[in-house]
Protein backbone atom coordinates (compact mmCIF):
# COMPACT_ATOMS: atom_id res chain seq x y z
CA UNK A 1 0.00 0.00 0.00
CA UNK A 2 2.85 2.35 0.88
CA UNK A 3 4.49 1.61 -2.44
CA UNK A 4 1.18 2.39 -4.18
CA UNK A 5 1.03 5.90 -2.67
CA UNK A 6 4.73 6.54 -3.21
CA UNK A 7 4.26 5.80 -6.89
CA UNK A 8 1.10 7.83 -7.12
CA UNK A 9 2.85 10.87 -5.64
CA UNK A 10 5.95 10.41 -7.74
CA UNK A 11 3.82 10.13 -10.85
CA UNK A 12 1.81 13.22 -9.89
CA UNK A 13 4.83 15.43 -9.33
CA UNK A 14 6.60 14.21 -12.44
CA UNK A 15 3.42 14.77 -14.42
CA UNK A 16 3.33 18.31 -13.09
CA UNK A 17 6.97 18.94 -13.96
CA UNK A 18 6.99 17.37 -17.40
CA UNK A 19 3.83 19.10 -18.54
CA UNK A 20 5.56 22.31 -17.49
CA UNK A 21 3.78 24.92 -19.55
CA UNK A 22 0.38 23.40 -19.29
CA UNK A 23 0.72 23.08 -15.52
CA UNK A 24 1.84 26.67 -15.28
CA UNK A 25 -1.08 27.92 -17.33
CA UNK A 26 -3.49 25.87 -15.24
CA UNK A 27 -1.99 27.29 -12.06
CA UNK A 28 -2.25 30.87 -13.33
CA UNK A 29 -5.86 30.46 -14.41
CA UNK A 30 -6.71 28.93 -11.06
CA UNK A 31 -4.92 31.80 -9.33
CA UNK A 32 -7.05 34.28 -11.20
CA UNK A 33 -10.23 32.46 -10.33
CA UNK A 34 -9.23 32.36 -6.68
CA UNK A 35 -8.36 36.05 -6.78
CA UNK A 36 -11.79 36.72 -8.18
CA UNK A 37 -13.40 34.91 -5.27
CA UNK A 38 -11.16 36.60 -2.70
CA UNK A 39 -11.58 40.08 -4.07
CA UNK A 40 -15.26 39.56 -4.00
CA UNK A 41 -15.23 38.25 -0.47
CA UNK A 42 -13.23 41.35 0.55
CA UNK A 43 -15.55 43.64 -1.31
CA UNK A 44 -18.49 42.11 0.48
CA UNK A 45 -16.75 42.69 3.76
CA UNK A 46 -16.11 46.34 2.91
CA UNK A 47 -19.70 46.81 1.80
CA UNK A 48 -20.94 45.17 4.98
CA UNK A 49 -18.69 47.35 7.10
CA UNK A 50 -19.78 50.47 5.23
CA UNK A 51 -23.42 49.65 5.75
CA UNK A 52 -22.77 49.06 9.44
CA UNK A 53 -20.95 52.35 9.61
CA UNK A 54 -23.83 54.14 7.93
CA UNK A 55 -26.35 52.44 10.20
CA UNK A 56 -24.34 53.52 13.20
CA UNK A 57 -24.67 57.08 12.07
CA UNK A 58 -28.39 56.92 11.75
CA UNK A 59 -29.74 58.16 15.00
CA UNK A 60 -32.73 60.06 16.22
CA UNK A 61 -32.95 63.12 18.45
CA UNK A 62 -35.86 63.69 20.85
CA UNK A 63 -36.20 67.36 21.76
CA UNK A 64 -37.54 68.21 25.23
CA UNK A 65 -40.08 70.87 26.05
CA UNK A 66 -38.53 73.90 27.69
CA UNK A 67 -40.21 73.16 30.99
CA UNK A 68 -38.61 69.73 31.43
CA UNK A 69 -36.08 69.48 34.25
CA UNK A 70 -32.80 67.65 33.95
CA UNK A 71 -33.85 64.93 36.38
CA UNK A 72 -36.99 64.20 34.35
CA UNK A 73 -34.81 64.02 31.27
CA UNK A 74 -32.38 61.63 32.97
CA UNK A 75 -35.25 59.34 34.02
CA UNK A 76 -36.44 59.17 30.44
CA UNK A 77 -32.87 58.46 29.33
CA UNK A 78 -32.70 55.47 31.66
CA UNK A 79 -36.03 54.22 30.36
CA UNK A 80 -34.92 54.60 26.76
CA UNK A 81 -31.76 52.65 27.46
CA UNK A 82 -33.87 49.65 28.52
CA UNK A 83 -35.61 49.40 25.16
CA UNK A 84 -34.44 46.55 22.95
CA UNK A 85 -32.45 47.64 19.90
CA UNK A 86 -31.13 50.80 21.53
CA UNK A 87 -27.37 50.87 21.64
CA UNK A 88 -26.66 54.28 23.07
CA UNK A 89 -28.57 57.20 24.55
CA UNK A 90 -26.86 60.54 25.03
CA UNK A 91 -28.32 63.46 26.92
CA UNK A 92 -27.52 66.75 25.23
CA UNK A 93 -28.30 69.72 27.45
CA UNK A 94 -29.36 73.01 26.06
CA UNK A 95 -25.91 74.40 26.76
CA UNK A 96 -24.15 71.46 25.02
CA UNK A 97 -26.36 71.99 22.01
CA UNK A 98 -25.45 75.66 21.85
CA UNK A 99 -21.74 74.95 22.20
CA UNK A 100 -21.92 72.44 19.39
CA UNK A 101 -23.92 74.83 17.24
CA UNK A 102 -21.41 77.59 17.75
CA UNK A 103 -18.51 75.28 17.05
CA UNK A 104 -20.13 74.02 13.84
CA UNK A 105 -20.82 77.57 12.62
CA UNK A 106 -17.73 79.35 13.83
CA UNK A 107 -16.87 80.53 10.35
CA UNK A 108 -20.18 82.19 9.75
CA UNK A 109 -20.09 85.57 11.39
CA UNK A 110 -23.64 86.47 10.42
CA UNK A 111 -25.17 83.57 12.32
CA UNK A 112 -23.00 84.16 15.33
CA UNK A 113 -24.18 87.77 15.42
CA UNK A 114 -27.77 86.63 15.63
CA UNK A 115 -27.23 83.94 18.23
CA UNK A 116 -26.33 85.29 21.56
CA UNK A 117 -24.94 83.18 24.38
CA UNK A 118 -27.41 84.58 26.84
CA UNK A 119 -30.58 83.77 24.99
CA UNK A 120 -30.20 80.10 24.30
CA UNK A 121 -33.07 79.05 22.07
CA UNK A 122 -31.86 75.47 21.58
CA UNK A 123 -33.78 72.76 23.46
CA UNK A 124 -32.17 69.93 25.37
CA UNK A 125 -32.45 66.54 23.69
CA UNK A 126 -31.79 62.79 23.85
CA UNK A 127 -29.77 61.34 20.99
CA UNK A 128 -30.60 57.70 20.49
CA UNK A 129 -28.54 55.22 18.49
CA UNK A 130 -30.02 51.92 17.40
CA UNK A 131 -28.72 48.60 16.13
CA UNK A 132 -30.90 48.59 13.06
CA UNK A 133 -32.37 51.62 11.32
CA UNK A 134 -35.60 49.68 10.79
CA UNK A 135 -36.26 49.88 14.54
CA UNK A 136 -36.16 53.65 14.83
CA UNK A 137 -39.85 54.34 14.32
CA UNK A 138 -40.91 51.68 16.77
CA UNK A 139 -38.53 52.86 19.45
CA UNK A 140 -39.54 56.48 19.11
CA UNK A 141 -43.20 55.48 19.19
CA UNK A 142 -42.64 53.46 22.33
CA UNK A 143 -41.01 56.41 24.13
CA UNK A 144 -43.71 58.87 23.08
CA UNK A 145 -46.55 56.55 24.11
CA UNK A 146 -44.91 56.18 27.53
CA UNK A 147 -43.64 58.90 29.80
CA UNK A 148 -41.97 60.66 26.91
CA UNK A 149 -45.26 61.99 25.53
CA UNK A 150 -45.50 64.68 28.17
CA UNK A 151 -41.86 65.72 27.97
CA UNK A 152 -41.05 65.74 24.30
CA UNK A 153 -42.02 68.49 21.95
CA UNK A 154 -40.55 67.23 18.72
CA UNK A 155 -38.40 64.49 17.23
CA UNK A 156 -35.91 64.54 14.36
CA UNK A 157 -37.77 61.57 12.91
CA UNK A 158 -40.04 63.78 10.86
CA UNK A 159 -37.08 65.53 9.19
CA UNK A 160 -34.96 62.45 8.70
CA UNK A 161 -37.64 60.03 7.61
CA UNK A 162 -36.85 60.30 3.92
CA UNK A 163 -33.12 60.06 4.35
CA UNK A 164 -33.38 57.04 6.62
CA UNK A 165 -35.73 55.38 4.17
CA UNK A 166 -33.27 55.93 1.36
CA UNK A 167 -30.31 54.66 3.31
CA UNK A 168 -32.20 51.58 4.38
CA UNK A 169 -33.27 50.74 0.88
CA UNK A 170 -29.80 51.35 -0.49
CA UNK A 171 -28.20 49.15 2.14
CA UNK A 172 -30.60 46.32 1.47
CA UNK A 173 -30.13 46.62 -2.27
CA UNK A 174 -26.34 46.58 -2.04
CA UNK A 175 -26.35 43.56 0.22
CA UNK A 176 -28.74 41.58 -1.94
CA UNK A 177 -27.02 42.37 -5.21
CA UNK A 178 -23.56 41.70 -3.88
CA UNK A 179 -24.72 38.29 -2.70
CA UNK A 180 -26.11 37.44 -6.12
CA UNK A 181 -23.02 38.75 -7.84
CA UNK A 182 -20.82 36.75 -5.48
CA UNK A 183 -22.69 33.56 -6.31
CA UNK A 184 -22.44 34.19 -10.04
CA UNK A 185 -18.74 34.94 -9.80
CA UNK A 186 -18.02 31.89 -7.71
CA UNK A 187 -19.82 29.70 -10.23
CA UNK A 188 -17.84 31.26 -13.05
CA UNK A 189 -14.59 30.76 -11.16
CA UNK A 190 -15.43 27.12 -10.50
CA UNK A 191 -16.29 26.52 -14.15
CA UNK A 192 -13.04 28.13 -15.26
CA UNK A 193 -11.02 25.92 -12.96
CA UNK A 194 -12.92 22.82 -13.99
CA UNK A 195 -12.47 23.53 -17.67
CA UNK A 196 -8.79 24.28 -17.33
CA UNK A 197 -8.18 20.97 -15.63
CA UNK A 198 -10.34 19.20 -18.17
CA UNK A 199 -8.19 20.59 -20.96
CA UNK A 200 -4.93 19.57 -19.32
CA UNK A 201 -6.30 16.06 -18.89
CA UNK A 202 -7.74 16.00 -22.40
CA UNK A 203 -4.25 16.57 -23.79
CA UNK A 204 -3.16 13.49 -21.89
CA UNK A 205 -6.05 11.19 -22.78
CA UNK A 206 -3.76 8.95 -24.81
CA UNK A 207 -1.60 8.51 -21.75
CA UNK A 208 -4.65 7.33 -19.83
CA UNK A 209 -5.57 4.89 -22.58
CA UNK A 210 -2.05 3.45 -22.62
CA UNK A 211 -2.01 3.05 -18.86
CA UNK A 212 -5.25 1.11 -19.07
CA UNK A 213 -3.90 -1.15 -21.79
CA UNK A 214 -0.84 -2.14 -19.77
CA UNK A 215 -3.12 -3.17 -16.95
CA UNK A 216 -3.29 -0.19 -14.60
CA UNK A 217 -6.40 -0.07 -12.42
CA UNK A 218 -8.65 2.96 -12.74
CA UNK A 219 -7.63 4.39 -9.39
CA UNK A 220 -3.95 3.88 -10.11
CA UNK A 221 -4.42 6.08 -13.16
CA UNK A 222 -6.76 8.53 -11.51
CA UNK A 223 -4.95 9.35 -8.27
CA UNK A 224 -1.92 11.06 -9.85
CA UNK A 225 -4.27 13.31 -11.82
CA UNK A 226 -6.30 14.13 -8.74
CA UNK A 227 -3.18 14.93 -6.75
CA UNK A 228 -1.85 16.99 -9.64
CA UNK A 229 -5.11 18.94 -9.66
CA UNK A 230 -4.79 19.52 -5.94
CA UNK A 231 -1.18 20.57 -6.42
CA UNK A 232 -2.35 23.20 -8.90
CA UNK A 233 -4.74 24.31 -6.20
CA UNK A 234 -2.11 24.64 -3.48
CA UNK A 235 0.29 26.61 -5.67
CA UNK A 236 -2.53 28.81 -6.97
CA UNK A 237 -3.65 29.51 -3.40
CA UNK A 238 -0.17 30.60 -2.37
CA UNK A 239 0.19 32.79 -5.46
CA UNK A 240 -3.17 34.41 -5.03
CA UNK A 241 -2.59 35.08 -1.33
CA UNK A 242 0.70 36.79 -2.09
CA UNK A 243 -0.95 38.88 -4.82
CA UNK A 244 -3.85 39.71 -2.53
CA UNK A 245 -1.57 40.86 0.25
CA UNK A 246 0.51 42.99 -2.06
CA UNK A 247 -2.66 44.45 -3.56
CA UNK A 248 -4.02 45.12 -0.08
CA UNK A 249 -0.89 46.93 1.04
CA UNK A 250 -0.59 48.96 -2.14
CA UNK A 251 -4.21 49.89 -2.84
CA UNK A 252 -6.75 49.03 -0.23
CA UNK A 253 -5.03 49.81 3.03
CA UNK A 254 -4.31 53.51 2.31
CA UNK A 255 -7.88 53.95 1.14
CA UNK A 256 -9.42 52.23 4.12
CA UNK A 257 -7.19 54.11 6.51
CA UNK A 258 -7.89 57.46 5.03
CA UNK A 259 -11.61 57.74 4.61
CA UNK A 260 -13.68 54.95 3.29
CA UNK A 261 -14.86 53.22 6.39
CA UNK A 262 -12.83 54.86 9.10
CA UNK A 263 -16.04 55.34 11.01
CA UNK A 264 -16.55 51.62 11.39
CA UNK A 265 -16.15 50.57 14.97
CA UNK A 266 -13.73 47.69 14.31
CA UNK A 267 -10.96 47.37 11.72
CA UNK A 268 -12.22 45.66 8.58
CA UNK A 269 -9.23 43.67 7.39
CA UNK A 270 -8.15 41.73 10.40
CA UNK A 271 -5.68 38.86 10.60
CA UNK A 272 -8.66 36.63 11.19
CA UNK A 273 -10.13 37.69 7.87
CA UNK A 274 -6.90 36.90 6.05
CA UNK A 275 -6.76 33.48 7.64
CA UNK A 276 -10.39 32.98 6.64
CA UNK A 277 -9.56 33.97 3.06
CA UNK A 278 -6.55 31.66 2.96
CA UNK A 279 -8.60 28.77 4.31
CA UNK A 280 -11.45 29.51 1.92
CA UNK A 281 -9.12 29.57 -1.07
CA UNK A 282 -7.30 26.43 -0.04
CA UNK A 283 -10.49 24.48 0.49
CA UNK A 284 -11.99 25.70 -2.77
CA UNK A 285 -8.77 24.97 -4.65
CA UNK A 286 -8.24 21.51 -3.19
CA UNK A 287 -11.82 20.41 -3.60
CA UNK A 288 -12.29 21.88 -7.05
CA UNK A 289 -8.85 20.74 -8.24
CA UNK A 290 -9.41 17.21 -7.00
CA UNK A 291 -13.02 16.85 -8.05
CA UNK A 292 -12.40 18.37 -11.49
CA UNK A 293 -9.57 15.93 -12.09
CA UNK A 294 -11.73 13.06 -10.98
CA UNK A 295 -14.51 14.01 -13.37
CA UNK A 296 -12.19 14.78 -16.23
CA UNK A 297 -10.37 11.44 -16.03
CA UNK A 298 -13.62 9.50 -15.71
CA UNK A 299 -14.48 10.18 -19.31
CA UNK A 300 -11.20 8.86 -20.65
CA UNK A 301 -11.11 5.78 -18.47
CA UNK A 302 -13.74 3.91 -20.44
CA UNK A 303 -11.34 1.87 -22.55
CA UNK B 1 -4.71 -22.60 -25.14
CA UNK B 2 -6.68 -19.74 -26.65
CA UNK B 3 -9.98 -20.62 -28.26
CA UNK B 4 -12.26 -18.46 -30.40
CA UNK B 5 -15.63 -20.22 -30.43
CA UNK B 6 -18.05 -18.93 -33.07
CA UNK B 7 -17.25 -15.34 -32.28
CA UNK B 8 -19.35 -12.63 -33.95
CA UNK B 9 -19.03 -8.91 -33.38
CA UNK B 10 -21.45 -6.31 -34.68
CA UNK B 11 -20.94 -2.58 -34.75
CA UNK B 12 -24.46 -1.41 -35.41
CA UNK B 13 -25.47 -3.23 -38.59
CA UNK B 14 -21.85 -3.81 -39.63
CA UNK B 15 -20.44 -7.29 -38.98
CA UNK B 16 -16.81 -6.76 -38.01
CA UNK B 17 -16.38 -10.45 -37.13
CA UNK B 18 -18.61 -13.19 -38.47
CA UNK B 19 -18.63 -16.62 -36.85
CA UNK B 20 -14.90 -16.84 -36.25
CA UNK B 21 -13.55 -20.07 -34.74
CA UNK B 22 -9.93 -21.14 -34.29
CA UNK B 23 -7.56 -22.02 -31.49
CA UNK B 24 -3.96 -21.24 -30.64
CA UNK B 25 -1.81 -23.76 -28.79
CA UNK B 26 0.81 -22.75 -26.24
CA UNK B 27 4.18 -21.64 -27.76
CA UNK B 28 2.68 -21.29 -31.21
CA UNK B 29 3.54 -18.41 -33.54
CA UNK B 30 0.40 -17.41 -35.44
CA UNK B 31 0.17 -14.76 -38.13
CA UNK B 32 -3.13 -13.05 -38.74
CA UNK B 33 -3.36 -11.52 -42.21
CA UNK B 34 -5.99 -9.75 -44.18
CA UNK B 35 -6.75 -6.45 -45.86
CA UNK B 36 -7.92 -3.45 -43.89
CA UNK B 37 -11.39 -4.08 -42.53
CA UNK B 38 -10.91 -7.84 -42.43
CA UNK B 39 -11.43 -7.82 -38.69
CA UNK B 40 -7.88 -8.20 -37.34
CA UNK B 41 -8.04 -5.21 -35.04
CA UNK B 42 -11.51 -6.12 -33.78
CA UNK B 43 -10.26 -9.58 -32.96
CA UNK B 44 -7.40 -8.12 -30.95
CA UNK B 45 -9.69 -5.69 -29.15
CA UNK B 46 -11.86 -8.62 -28.10
CA UNK B 47 -8.80 -10.47 -26.82
CA UNK B 48 -7.84 -7.43 -24.70
CA UNK B 49 -11.36 -7.08 -23.31
CA UNK B 50 -11.66 -3.63 -24.86
CA UNK B 51 -14.86 -4.87 -26.49
CA UNK B 52 -17.24 -7.73 -25.83
CA UNK B 53 -18.31 -10.16 -28.59
CA UNK B 54 -21.93 -9.94 -29.73
CA UNK B 55 -22.14 -13.75 -29.96
CA UNK B 56 -19.77 -16.60 -29.17
CA UNK B 57 -17.00 -16.77 -26.63
CA UNK B 58 -13.27 -16.50 -26.25
CA UNK B 59 -11.58 -18.73 -23.69
CA UNK B 60 -8.04 -18.78 -22.41
CA UNK B 61 -7.20 -22.02 -20.62
CA UNK B 62 -10.92 -22.79 -20.53
CA UNK B 63 -11.86 -19.49 -18.89
CA UNK B 64 -14.24 -17.18 -20.71
CA UNK B 65 -12.46 -13.83 -20.60
CA UNK B 66 -15.62 -11.81 -21.16
CA UNK B 67 -17.20 -13.11 -18.00
CA UNK B 68 -14.53 -11.19 -16.06
CA UNK B 69 -15.85 -8.37 -13.91
CA UNK B 70 -14.66 -4.92 -14.96
CA UNK B 71 -12.42 -4.52 -11.98
CA UNK B 72 -10.51 -7.71 -12.78
CA UNK B 73 -9.78 -6.67 -16.34
CA UNK B 74 -6.60 -4.74 -15.40
CA UNK B 75 -5.20 -7.90 -13.78
CA UNK B 76 -6.12 -9.96 -16.81
CA UNK B 77 -4.36 -7.48 -19.11
CA UNK B 78 -1.15 -7.80 -17.13
CA UNK B 79 -0.93 -11.41 -18.27
CA UNK B 80 -0.91 -10.48 -21.93
CA UNK B 81 1.82 -8.53 -23.67
CA UNK B 82 0.63 -6.19 -26.42
CA UNK B 83 2.52 -4.29 -29.09
CA UNK B 84 0.68 -1.72 -31.20
CA UNK B 85 1.33 -0.26 -34.64
CA UNK B 86 1.37 3.24 -33.13
CA UNK B 87 3.60 2.08 -30.26
CA UNK B 88 1.50 3.68 -27.50
CA UNK B 89 4.40 4.74 -25.32
CA UNK B 90 3.94 7.40 -22.65
CA UNK B 91 5.52 10.47 -24.28
CA UNK B 92 6.53 12.10 -21.02
CA UNK B 93 8.34 9.11 -19.63
CA UNK B 94 11.77 7.79 -20.44
CA UNK B 95 12.40 4.40 -22.04
CA UNK B 96 13.15 2.81 -18.67
CA UNK B 97 10.10 4.43 -17.06
CA UNK B 98 7.85 3.29 -19.86
CA UNK B 99 8.95 -0.28 -19.36
CA UNK B 100 8.91 0.04 -15.58
CA UNK B 101 5.42 1.50 -15.59
CA UNK B 102 3.83 -1.82 -16.44
CA UNK B 103 5.59 -3.37 -13.46
CA UNK B 104 4.90 -0.48 -11.09
CA UNK B 105 1.23 -0.89 -11.84
CA UNK B 106 1.38 -4.37 -10.35
CA UNK B 107 3.03 -3.14 -7.16
CA UNK B 108 6.41 -4.85 -7.58
CA UNK B 109 9.21 -3.40 -5.40
CA UNK B 110 11.55 -0.83 -6.94
CA UNK B 111 14.77 -2.84 -6.83
CA UNK B 112 13.14 -5.80 -8.58
CA UNK B 113 11.76 -3.46 -11.24
CA UNK B 114 15.11 -1.82 -11.93
CA UNK B 115 16.78 -5.22 -12.31
CA UNK B 116 14.06 -6.61 -14.53
CA UNK B 117 13.85 -3.48 -16.71
CA UNK B 118 17.56 -3.50 -17.41
CA UNK B 119 17.49 -7.19 -18.28
CA UNK B 120 14.62 -6.74 -20.70
CA UNK B 121 16.15 -3.61 -22.30
CA UNK B 122 19.28 -5.63 -22.90
CA UNK B 123 17.22 -8.35 -24.60
CA UNK B 124 15.79 -5.81 -27.07
CA UNK B 125 19.16 -4.04 -27.40
CA UNK B 126 18.29 -0.67 -25.87
CA UNK B 127 20.22 -0.72 -22.63
CA UNK B 128 22.11 2.47 -23.45
CA UNK B 129 18.93 4.40 -24.31
CA UNK B 130 17.27 3.76 -20.97
CA UNK B 131 17.03 7.41 -19.97
CA UNK B 132 16.02 8.80 -23.38
CA UNK B 133 12.48 9.96 -24.10
CA UNK B 134 10.52 8.24 -26.90
CA UNK B 135 10.72 11.35 -29.13
CA UNK B 136 14.51 10.97 -29.16
CA UNK B 137 14.37 7.47 -30.65
CA UNK B 138 13.91 6.05 -34.16
CA UNK B 139 10.73 4.17 -35.12
CA UNK B 140 12.42 0.77 -34.78
CA UNK B 141 13.82 1.67 -31.38
CA UNK B 142 10.44 2.89 -30.19
CA UNK B 143 8.84 -0.38 -31.25
CA UNK B 144 11.50 -2.30 -29.39
CA UNK B 145 10.69 -0.29 -26.26
CA UNK B 146 7.04 -1.25 -26.73
CA UNK B 147 8.05 -4.91 -27.07
CA UNK B 148 10.19 -4.61 -23.95
CA UNK B 149 7.23 -3.22 -22.07
CA UNK B 150 5.02 -6.03 -23.32
CA UNK B 151 7.54 -8.63 -22.15
CA UNK B 152 8.38 -7.26 -18.76
CA UNK B 153 5.67 -9.33 -17.06
CA UNK B 154 7.00 -12.45 -18.78
CA UNK B 155 3.59 -13.03 -20.32
CA UNK B 156 2.75 -16.40 -21.81
CA UNK B 157 1.00 -14.65 -24.65
CA UNK B 158 2.17 -11.73 -26.79
CA UNK B 159 -0.11 -9.91 -29.23
CA UNK B 160 1.48 -7.72 -31.89
CA UNK B 161 -0.95 -5.57 -33.88
CA UNK B 162 0.79 -4.47 -37.09
CA UNK B 163 4.04 -3.82 -35.21
CA UNK B 164 5.89 -3.17 -38.45
CA UNK B 165 3.24 -1.00 -40.10
CA UNK B 166 5.11 2.25 -39.51
CA UNK B 167 8.61 0.92 -40.08
CA UNK B 168 10.94 0.64 -43.08
CA UNK B 169 11.59 -2.91 -44.45
CA UNK B 170 14.95 -3.41 -42.75
CA UNK B 171 13.68 -2.30 -39.34
CA UNK B 172 10.54 -4.35 -39.88
CA UNK B 173 12.70 -7.44 -40.30
CA UNK B 174 14.58 -6.63 -37.10
CA UNK B 175 11.34 -6.44 -35.20
CA UNK B 176 10.07 -9.67 -36.73
CA UNK B 177 13.28 -11.46 -35.79
CA UNK B 178 12.90 -10.16 -32.27
CA UNK B 179 9.36 -11.57 -32.13
CA UNK B 180 10.62 -14.95 -33.41
CA UNK B 181 13.30 -14.93 -30.74
CA UNK B 182 10.72 -14.20 -28.05
CA UNK B 183 8.59 -17.06 -29.39
CA UNK B 184 11.57 -19.41 -29.28
CA UNK B 185 12.00 -18.52 -25.60
CA UNK B 186 8.54 -19.96 -24.94
CA UNK B 187 6.01 -17.17 -25.48
CA UNK B 188 2.94 -17.67 -27.65
CA UNK B 189 2.85 -14.94 -30.30
CA UNK B 190 -0.08 -13.63 -32.32
CA UNK B 191 1.14 -11.31 -35.06
CA UNK B 192 -1.35 -9.32 -37.11
CA UNK B 193 0.27 -7.87 -40.20
CA UNK B 194 -0.07 -6.51 -43.73
CA UNK B 195 3.52 -7.25 -44.59
CA UNK B 196 3.60 -9.81 -47.39
CA UNK B 197 7.37 -10.20 -47.37
CA UNK B 198 7.44 -11.12 -43.72
CA UNK B 199 4.51 -13.52 -43.94
CA UNK B 200 5.92 -15.32 -46.95
CA UNK B 201 9.39 -15.70 -45.47
CA UNK B 202 8.98 -16.94 -41.94
CA UNK B 203 7.02 -20.10 -42.65
CA UNK B 204 4.64 -20.03 -39.73
CA UNK B 205 0.95 -20.74 -39.28
CA UNK B 206 -1.14 -18.16 -41.15
CA UNK B 207 -4.80 -17.36 -40.57
CA UNK B 208 -6.23 -15.41 -43.52
CA UNK B 209 -9.20 -13.20 -42.82
CA UNK B 210 -11.54 -11.34 -45.10
CA UNK B 211 -14.70 -9.39 -44.38
CA UNK B 212 -14.81 -10.60 -40.83
CA UNK B 213 -14.43 -14.29 -41.65
CA UNK B 214 -11.57 -16.76 -41.46
CA UNK B 215 -11.02 -17.82 -45.08
CA UNK B 216 -7.90 -20.01 -44.69
CA UNK B 217 -5.93 -21.42 -41.78
CA UNK B 218 -2.74 -23.30 -42.72
CA UNK B 219 0.28 -24.65 -40.80
CA UNK B 220 2.75 -23.11 -43.28
CA UNK B 221 0.86 -20.28 -44.81
CA UNK B 222 1.42 -17.50 -47.32
CA UNK B 223 0.12 -13.96 -47.61
CA UNK B 224 -2.26 -14.90 -50.45
CA UNK B 225 -3.74 -11.50 -51.28
CA UNK B 226 -3.08 -9.39 -54.33
Question: Can you give a write-up of this model?
Answer:
Chain A: This is Cell division protein FtsX. Chain A: Belongs to the ABC-4 integral membrane protein family. FtsX subfamily. Chain A: Keywords: Cell cycle, Cell division, Cell membrane, Membrane, Transmembrane, Transmembrane helix. The complex is a heterodimer of chains A (303) and B (226). Chain A has 303 residues and is of the alpha+beta class. Chain A folds into two domains: 2-54 and 168-300, no CATH class; 58-158, Alpha-Beta Plaits (2-Layer Sandwich), CATH 3.30.70.3040. Chain A is built from ten helices and four strands; from the N terminus they run ααβαβααβαβαααα. Chain A has a four-stranded antiparallel beta sheet. In chain A, α9 runs antiparallel to α10 (271-300). In chain A, 27% of the residues are buried. The mean pLDDT of chain A is 79. Chain B is of the alpha/beta class. Chain B has a single domain, classed as Rossmann fold (3-Layer(aba) Sandwich). Chain B contains seven helices and ten strands. Chain B has helices spanning 40-47, 73-77, 95-105, 110-123, 139-151, 169-184, 196-202, and strands at residues 2-11, 14-24, 29-33, 55-60, 63-64, 80-84, 157-161, 188-193, 205-210, 213-218. In chain B, the strands form two sheets. Chain B has a six-stranded mixed beta sheet, with helices on both faces. In chain B, strands 2-1-4-5 form a four-stranded antiparallel beta sheet, with helices on one face. In chain B, a hairpin with a 2-residue loop joins β1 and β2. The longest helix of chain B is centred in the C-terminal third of the chain and has 16 residues, at 169-184. Chain B starts with a strand and ends in an 8-residue tail after the last strand. The mean pLDDT of chain B is 89. Chains A and B meet through α1 and α8 of A and α2 and α3 of B.
